[in-house]
Design goal:
- The chain contains 5 helices and 8 strands.
- By secondary structure, the chain is an alpha/beta fold.
- The chain folds into 2 domains: 16-90, Transcription elongation factor, GreA/GreB, N-terminal domain (Helix Hairpins, Orthogonal Bundle), CATH 1.10.287; 93-192, Roll (Chitinase A, domain 3), CATH 3.10.50.30.
- The longest helix has 27 residues, at 25-51.
Length: 204
């Protein structure tokens, strides 16, 4: 059977993974899918109405509705694949206030030093290692959210304090050192954790 060019160069689907999310995230996914279904129904009505208006070759309303339906279908397919490929485990941030701090785990605030091997440039960050999709920062404490499934978090999770570790990041090799691990305060969580939003999903 001959290979098609589209199949040869198609990017492989990401491997299934476990994604930690805050309570309510699964409900948000279901609500987003339902909203897309309702939007599609309305677009189909628009398409049928436009179809009744005459010559389809110059019927821009029909063409616009048809393209909008395709866009919604792509989003629904991408969301369906996102849900099917992954396992979502809801975790309560209240538990982060009293976690043991022997090694860096989800829910910890960490001071991290990063030295780029190629340039020897050093960077220092204070991160809250948090659930999927969190990107907020807190000007008052200087803490930034670091999603647990980001490349940087994947490199430092499980490390103890003051244990230099060479890792490979998308930007290249780096030497990582966790300088401090602590639990967040309730006030810090209130400032950092934002409303749960549906994921931004790219079409395959």
């Amino acid at each position: 059977m001959p290979l098609h060019r589209k199949k040869i160069f198609r990017v492989a689907a990401p491997a299934p993974t476990t994604i930690y999310v805050r309570p309510g995230y699964n409900r948000v996914l279901a609500e987003q899918f339902e909203a897309l279904k309702l939007k599609r129904i309305d677009l189909v009505k628009d398409k049928v109405e436009a179809h009744s208006q005459g010559d389809l070759r110059e019927n821009f309303g029909f063409k616009a509705a048809k393209e909008a339906i395709r866009a919604v279908d792509r989003k629904m397919t991408a969301l369906d694949r996102f849900v099917a490929r992954n396992t979502f485990i809801e975790v309560d941030p209240v538990m982060w206030l009293t976690k043991p701090t022997d090694t860096l785990q989800l829910g910890h605030v960490a001071t991290i030093e990063k030295e780029d091997v190629a340039t020897t440039r050093k960077h220092r960050f204070i991160f809250l290692v948090t659930t999927h999709g969190e990107t907020a920062s807190d000007p008052e404490s200087g803490i930034e959210c670091l999603p647990h499934n980001s490349p940087l978090a994947a490199a430092v999770l499980g490390l103890p304090v003051n244990a230099p570790t060479k890792v490979t990041l998308p930007a290249g090799e780096a030497l990582m050192i966790v300088r401090a691990i602590r639990n967040p305060t309730k006030a810090e969580l209130d400032r950092l954790l934002t409303a749960i939003n549906p994921p931004e999903i790219e079409d395959d």
